[in-house]
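Dear colleagues,

For the upcoming journal club I promised to circulate an example of a predicted protein-ligand complex. I picked one with zinc ion because it came up in last month's discussion. The inputs are reproduced below in full, followed by the predicted structure.
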Amino acid sequence: MDLHKANGAENGVGRESQNGQVSDLRLFVGNFVHSTKSDPLVMLTDTVLGISSVNIEFLEPIEKLDQIKATYGISDEDVTYMNDSQFMIPGLIDTHIHAPQFPNNGLKLNLPLLEWLQGYTFPTEAKLSDESYARQLYPRVVDRLLSNGTTTACYFASLHLPATKILADIVKEKGQRGLVGKVSMIRNSPDYYRERSLEESVKENEEFILYVRSLNSPLVLPIVTPRFAPTCSQEQLEALAQLAKNHQCHIQSHLSETRPELAWVKELFPWSESYTDVYHKCELLGPKTVMAHGIWLDEAEIKTLKETGAGISHCPNSNMSIRSGLCNVRRLIDSGVKVGLGTDCSGGYSSSILDSIRHAVQTSNTLTILDGDHKHLPLSEVFRLATLGGAEVIAMDDKIGNFEVGKEFDALLIDVRAVDSPIDSEENDTLEDRIQRFLLNGDDRNIMEVYVSGRKVHNRNAKRKT
Ligand code: GUN
Ligand code: ZN
């Protein structure tokens, strides 16, 4: 390819074409890498991708570039030309992250889950009772995720209504795609950090749903968020399921993360057949439900997830860092359960989905070391989990997850030879080598531009200059 780089306007603007039609097309020219249902690693080389403000309109071979530009009256200021060290991938999707736990990222991983929650996590989340603190913390969270290439995030906020509204405001303001949830927890929680009554819980959740809807943003959605079965009563789980049904909302929670938690759930819900059964009987499982972890599931539970269409957010850094267990993702995928990746900050110490990709690969490799019959997940399959898999888990695979025509343009412009790049690339690297090196050795320094729904929401070069 012998193409020059033209950094034009942020978004295409309406213009006259040769035949007098007005178009708001913007073009990206170079190599694109994405996953489809049938192929985890599709490389579209020397391609012209056209977007009209939000959606992908076409993918054409580079030979048609001049013709496309003439037909639509597109000048170079509305074309992004990638060079040989650059390519585009779909935006990364974090299907499980705790925004108020960011101050603990990289800290306090010496305790197992239940003690970690009581000792570190609840006190940290409780600080979000202060709205000014939320205004200070949450912009940093969203900025960090955007620079890491996370175009869509499924957020647990705290149990505070005002601070959770602030998180929704900030996600909207910064142009990220996000599902935002006010955490619900009414029992087995410290007095300083729990909802006061079932009525209050339902009322505040409903107010939050209506608030997010009033923002009128197609990118920010509310998600009903019972923390996990041990901190919710049966009545609360049922009431929240009803609320989600009434408002056609997504639902998220934690499922089967550690063995002590399983025993506790059995004790708290003696009528249940399993942890999954608690959520199933309370009618929380459906195609718009995201369950984090799912490490210790039995066959019947996996069948229930598959039948209800609920997805699993695989959070491998967290699973290793607080020693919860090794999730057998191969088993879930082969059983037809939807799987995406999550960082689970601060149970996981990194807020980057690239890190989740690496931990997912290593978790799968570890399962193969322990059992030679286990078929490890190749890097390409894990790349699919980070993009299209995540989109399936949040039931948005009709809108995002790859570069299929008609989908919204959520994308990252990657440069393996960016200034300060941590990648040791070789001159004769193939495109597949470059994507592999980026996934395993790259970081935010290689993520040059981030697009959500066609809008540029992060530009590393612009940031570096300020
Ligand atoms: N289970 C209930 N709450 C949490 C949490 O905040 N993090 C993790 N990893 N598991 C949980
Ligand atoms: Zn979590």
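Two points we might discuss: Residues 98, 113, 117, 121, 227-228, 254, 257, 318, 344, 347 surround guanine (ligand 1) (CB under 6 Å). The domain at 25-90+402-465 is CATH 2.30.40.10 (Urease, subunit C; domain 1).

See you all on Thursday,
B. R.
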